[in-house]
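Quick board copy: two proteins, each given as sequence then tokens.
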Amino acid sequence: MKKIDARTFKQDVQEAHRQQIVRLRKSGRPNKETAEIVGISESHCSKVWQRFKKEGPGSIVKGKRGRRQGEQRDLTTEQEAEIKRLIIDKAPNQLKLSFALWTRDAVRLLIEQKSGIAMPIRTVGEYLKRWGFTPQKPAKWAKEQSTPAVVNWLAKEYPAISKRAKQEKAEIYWGDETGIQTGANVERGYSPKGKTPVLRQTGRKHRINMISAITNQGKVRFMFYKETMNSKRLITFMKRLVKDAGRKVYLILDNLKVHHSHVVMDWLEKHKDKIEVFYLPSYSPELNPDEYLNNSLKGRVHSGERAQNVKQLESKSRKHMKHLQNRSCKVKKFFDHPCASYAA
């Protein structure tokens, strides 16, 4: 009978052969006869039987083929753990690397610095993918932001505002201004490789502005205007806000210069029984949930068919804002952002 190399069989077949070998050998058949019955070499039959006698039933079950996890990697488990920890906890410049962000080049230099291994850039990318790191567009935070001021806002100032609001049965609004203009391009479109898609749009710049305010209960109030924000327009918006709320309003704003103008301050002093304004720490837009509404608005306005003039721009903007007014659950989700969850 022709003998076939057992290594060419699938694992299930190999396991069945090993079980048959053990069963025949236990019944008293010699290696030569067993090998003839199974259709394998006598030496392989002997090898399987000896291994079974020495290691037991576990030695004949199918195992995992190929290279074992971690085998033949350049970095040890300890080195990988150290590199991952440094990437998560440190910025490149803190480790004297001339990079602003962790790119593959930066990680390659870090690996060489810590382990002495000059790793190919492609291999660095494979390590990063294996560790669960992905290239991402960074969030931009101002260097001028004061960390102690942010900590104080989160730990003391806002909790005090919230407590006072409950005592006075006031409604807390977060407000912000934003501008929407034609020409902005935030969408991507598919196209054959090497052929950039073309987007036809007006070359003229048209712009509208909006001030809005939201609550963590999903309320949305907004007002469009064409010129820049000034004291008169801000007061007009606050008057509408107070009238619509039907109770005292606590309005939280950023530190735009007009928010601190003498005209606004005088008006607030005269109407302090109806509205009070509080200010976020400077250079901290991420703490304002209304910023995420602005992002939602711009994403919607600049998607689909492009606005070609002010009328179309305002129409698309107003449509989305009306949609949010009727979908309080979507507005509440702006407070789910990790930086704004304190206000939820």
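And the next:
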Amino acid sequence: MAEEVLSQSEIDSLLSALSTGEMDAEELKVEDKEKKVRVYDFKRALRFSKDQIRSLSRIHENFARLLTTYFSGQLRTYVNIQVASVDQLPYEEFIRSIPTMTILNIFSVSPLEGRILLETNPNVAYAMLDRVLGGRGSSMNKVDNLTEIETTIMSQLFERALENYQEAWGSIVEIEALLEEFEVNPQFLQMVSPNETVIVVSLNTTIGEASGMINICIPHVVLEPIIPKLSVHYWMQNQQPKERNIEEYESLQKTIQKAQVDVKAVLGETDIFIEQFLQLQQNDVIRLNQRIDEPMTLKVDDEKKFYIQPGQLKNQMAVQVLEEIREEEEENE
């Protein structure tokens, strides 16, 4: 248990009260011995630490930025999305907090178990729909009688947005987000038990002149396998170079060094007509575009890499590398 540190003035005041009789030392001892009781609500079980909540907040702040860019390009209007809060609460409490008729996207995040719920306020959803259909982004609320066309457009819009969710989680775990259901009534939706702890990420969303909330509900069962990764230690480890990455790099480097490439020493080149080629006979001389006092070129996979000169090594023809051909020189040729 953390001990409370008193300042010098507080210590002086305490000693003064004890000396004057305002406080009794025996009473203080009795109070210390008494058991301190803290109220705990089992319906609101806290299963995530503050450190893990901060990690989830960072992930969804990145998602909010990606989503802002995505919707700005799709809707061609002013879009602003920011994380408002990240809380843990019972699933039943979350369901009661959202409108009775709203836009609900339920998607899986393989290989993690369970499903995630993306709830969009009708004001925001209809502003998006109006922009996609060529309107100014006016908002209306008629969720109870969505047409098949409206349902298809909205579900496709949010389905493509899930690619940004995959990218936001990329630093922690590789997931594949897949839209499974599209609902409008939360009462018909039972993802987990009512008392199950869920993480609710609320995003303040502005689309043109309309504004509202986008809520992401993540059950505990989804995050349970990756909870150890939601810590500052893991994030700091990821930011530092790892020995494993160095070993993988060295292994890859050794493998590439063993790869075979086609190397050609080019004596010279020239262009002739097909007719001349067909009439070539023994002892004919072909004039090349290479001067005798100029270095030859060495090609690696048909790309000029080095200037060379011909020679002999142990009774075999060989070439000596003079210098590397730089890209600027190759472009000027």
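Board note added afterward: The longest strand covers residues 79-90.
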